[in-house]
Design a protein that fits this description.
Cytochrome Bc1 Complex, Chain D, domain 2, 52% helix, mainly alpha, elongated, 5 helices
Length: 123
């Protein structure tokens, strides 16, 4: 009986260590690249993010000029969370902003906003 208890405790500890290792493992470069690529696709999609309607960015074609060009984003937004807030709802910082509140109006999902943020932050 004591041997069985030790085996159970040992197994539980092993499972806990493996689970913690999986949770604490950083996002791999391949995963990050996938998120950035998804964000770029959403940013260029005329039916979803549609950033190109108002912003010049990267290699986008037929870009608008209503909003500022999306360049030097790491300098403009050292805190990536502030960039995400701007995409989620620009009217919180500027009530007269004409940028759609993508998050507040649920025009994009939280995951889509995260992906777009990751992509725009690379510009």
């Amino acid at each position: 009986m004591l041997q069985t208890a030790r085996t159970i405790v040992s197994t539980a500890c092993s499972v806990a260590v493996m689970t913690a290792a999986m949770v604490l493992t950083p996002v791999t470069t391949a995963t990050a690249e996938t998120v950035i690529e998804k964000g770029k696709a959403l940013s260029y999609d005329r039916k979803l993010g549609n950033c190109l309607a108002c912003h010049a960015m990267d290699d986008g074609k037929l870009a608008g000029n209503i909003g500022p060009p999306l360049v030097s984003m790491k300098l403009r937004y050292p805190d990536k969370a502030k960039l995400r807030e701007q995409i989620w709802d620009a009217t919180t910082k500027n009530a007269n902003s004409i940028m759609p509140p993508f998050g507040r109006h649920k025009m994009l999902t939280e995951e889509q906003i995260d992906a777009i943020t990751e992509y725009v932050y690379t510009l």
